[in-house]
What we know:
By secondary structure, chain B is mostly helical. Chain B is built from 11 helices and 2 strands, in the order H-H-H-H-E-E-H-H-H-H-H-H-H.
Amino acid sequence: MTEPILRTESITKYFGAVKASQDVSLELRPGEIHALIGPNGAGKSTLIKQIAGNLTPDAGRIWFDGRDVTRLGTVARARAGLGRTFQISSLAMEYTVLQNVVLGALGRDGGVMRFLLPAMKDKALVAEAEAALDRVGLIDLKSTRTADLSHGQRRQLEVAVALTLRPKAFLMDEPMAGLGAGGSKRLTGFLDTLRAEAPILLVEHDMDAVFALADRISVLVYGEVIATGTAAEIRANRDVRTAYLGEDA
Amino acid sequence: MSVLLLIEQILNGLQFGLMLFLISAGLTLIFGVMGIINLAHGSLYMVGAFAAAAGAAATGSFVLGLGAALMAAAIAGVIVEVLVIRRLYDRDHLDQVLATFALILIFSEGTRWVFGSFPLYLDVPSWLSGAVTLPGGIPYPLYRLTIIGIGLAVAAGLFLLIAKTRVGIRIRAGESDREMIAALGVDISKLYTLVFALGAALAGFAGALVGAIQSVQVGMGEPMLILAFVTIVIGGIGSIKGAFVGAILVGLTDTLGRFLLPVLFGVFMEPSSATAVGSALASMLIYILMAGVLIFRPTGLYGKA
Amino acid sequence: MIRETYLNALIMALLLGIPLWAHVAGQPFTITLATKVAILGLAGVGLNIALGLGGMVSLGHAVFFGIGGYAMGILAHHAQTYTPLMEAPLLIEGTKFMPAIWLVAVVVSAVVALAIGALSLRTGGVYFIMITLAFGQMFYYFAISWPAYGGEDGLSIYVRNEFPGLNTLVPIQFFAIAFVALSLGLILSHLIARSRFGLALGAARQNSERVQTVGLDPMRVKLVAFVISGAITGLAGALFADLNRFVAPTMFSWHLSGELIIFIILGGIGRLFGPVVGAGLFILLEHFLGGLSEYWLIYVGAILLGVVLFARGGLIGALSGREVAHD
């Protein structure tokens, strides 16, 4: 078996007396889409925040690309190659679509302490940004102000920014939300091809997308992973049916 | 250096700190509940002092002067809240800073216009002047002792108000969840006006009390405003308890620093330069204290992270 | 966009043309006013890098203005009294040479900005405003209580400092220095706004999480901007002290910090020439309203309140008709 890109090792996080994450061990392997599902309040956001570096776990460790990143912040993890998209879009709203993506290219390039030459005339940065916009289908909107995009388009834009980082793994928090049936289908198709570039840890409520895409699925309930397996295994799992699907139905 | 003098300075620091608390409490409450940074808070302090001086001069009664201060500052607070602050709730901090800075200009120049540029004097009433002898034979001005008592009483009252009363519960609810309290049917805009007026009255009251020790003049509120900022940065913005601890810390640090540092430098320097270096450093001491707190607790002693 | 460019050209033409006319017409006071506009405009341009581009509401920029002023005052004071600034461990003499004074003003301002910025950017938001204000006040009180350089009374310089090839005592020649400094400040500010750094800084203003997500540290970007901003304002302070041949603790006063912000808001936030227009407007108000009433600041307060509550684009916004992107 190949070495996982991302691995959490028994991470635990308390908020006061509440266990938000309990002994969570997950792996994201090269080439796979690993979906993380669970009912609302199961601790998915808390887990994502620990993996991205917004929160530090109380116990356990997080490994990324062969390194222990447990103590690193969000910036260092992004630099290490973790490409993230947010549940609620987090973009520079006054900027144009293209400016947001050029920012991503700039982040990967790292040469931020340059004060004299115009960033938007930097051919390498802009070419990289436009290529990413083209891939997510936003190239025609590149001069639009980000605040004027629809929610679905903002999701696509976040994916485009993440692409410019050329990450070693993607961390996507509900990328389908607000997309509508057509958009959701297109993005599903796109993520399907993306996994060959870098594996995706996907938090998603859209079960059609999850079961269509995921190589493996982990089910989180009350901060605990109650099952991990292929789509078929998860469908058949009794605990999952009672704990998760039972609640949902 | 005598112990008596030191105790007297500690009491002075305490007195200063308590007055600072009266100002900081309103400032921190207004920020905590309404999310407003109000630079004009020092102007309300000044309004209180002028109202007290004018009221006492007109009626001959210090107590009536204090009443005038409370009334004037509260009324000024209500007017300011309704006309200006209310439009700033949804604005960013920059707009709040600018609008309240504009209010300072209007208050200061308006006061200068009405009262002239010369300071007014508010006399300590005869029944509060003179000194008392504290246990241990320490003589201390009765008036200062009285305002220490008043400051403590107001602080206790404020804590009770916030902790026990219906209004206090609403204030705390407004701090934690604005939408919730609106959903519960509390008239949020009335609550805001009330909180603002309360903060204004506290500041005006402090202005009146301090006005009898110092002179009453335009611009007197600004140094206090900045000290109040230092206080609530140290204590943690939004926390009344933090404002109290911060105010006492700042009051004691400043007063004792001014007293002790020149003495301290006198140990190894000649007297004239010891005084110079000591007092220059003393003037920076509370800011150094603030920097120190920020290094270890960026959101202040009792601030929410 | 095009209208604003024309407007900017017009502003510079006026700022250059009026003192030239005044020089020909023999009106040195008008030249001095224009010089003041240029210098205060430069201070505002400095602040605008932190405030307009970086969204850092610094209510303590007078610190850098004052440091620049005292850099001039202290160096020139030692030069005119022929006493060294310091003898051990190395000999440092005062100087009347402007470029050397400017260098000191810029470097010291930058170092102080680094310290203040590092402390006050740890939390941000409303803490940032209060902390910058507090540190400003610290410098103010320190200047008052430190007797070596005049304390409360400040320091006077007998003769304006020197610049090679110019007679700085001639108002129009000193104006030329201030005008060139302002122009360079504007060019730098323009370049920074469009640069890679400016792109990251603007993003840090709008959404610091976004900047982190692309692997850049928004605090570091903001801190560097704060340092550049402080350095430019420091240079303006040195020029201002030279204009008056006088420096006093009032250069550190928080009213001045507030006025610098007012320049930006009067001119229009986020606009390159906003601070220059704002400074010009402020000086004009001071000149004309000050002549009408002793209490002219009341009108400034009322105007400011009106602009903040009702006309957020400032004067350039009203004239160019373009809403600047600012939320």
